[in-house]
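STRUCTURE REQUEST FORM
Protein name: Chemotaxis protein CheW
Source organism: Pseudomonas violetae
Requested output: structure tokens
Priority: standard
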Amino acid sequence: MKASDTLSVTHEDAQAIDDCWNRMGVHGDRSCPLLSEHIHCRNCAVYSAAATGLLDRYALQHEDRAQVSSIVENDVKTRSLLVFRLGEEWLGLATRSLVEVASLQPIHSLPHQRSRALLGVANVRGALVACLSLVELLGLDAADGVASSARIMPRMLIISAQGGPVVVPVDEVDGIHAIAERVLEAASRSGTQASSKYTHGVLQFKGRSLRWLDEEQLLAAVTRSLT
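Status: completed
Returned output:
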């Protein structure tokens, strides 16, 4: 599936919104008469109202959309996980939840945040997409993280939630890896996930501890944060 197809929900919602910031605002020809007063579109009440309308659509779609069936993987010996870092912690998320790994974009806060996990909205190819903090959702410490390097580039993960795509910033993406089912099952049975939210288990991977996230529980928490 192409990235343009996977973001169709977001773009369908955007069509119902007058995206004046893309036509005559900071992303357009800058002809808006209000631009001199607000300096940037994110400071304008029209932009805030559009962002709030987007979040309302997430709530409505969550109520109306049927639960998507999980893919049966009984014959598969490995599972595909996206491995990424938040602070000093490495995490793995099933790639079936992933739409795209994108470059970091500016996050615009909203005047009335609906939850502590909601950072605001980001502009993804002209459409507003809700942006959430996994640090807040997972209850992680806001640590300083590892030493910086020119090769380490923060990214945004676009993940598929029930109400539509959402973006989450991460400190580093290691890549997509195939993990043996038996290794994941052993981690799930070990009980090391008991003190961690939305976690199947913890396993050793490439010389470090990797927290394998329970995508169903995590995506349910994402939806609650938006509604």
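Reviewer notes: The mean pLDDT is 76. Residues 189 and 201 are 8 Å apart (CA to CA).
Form closed.
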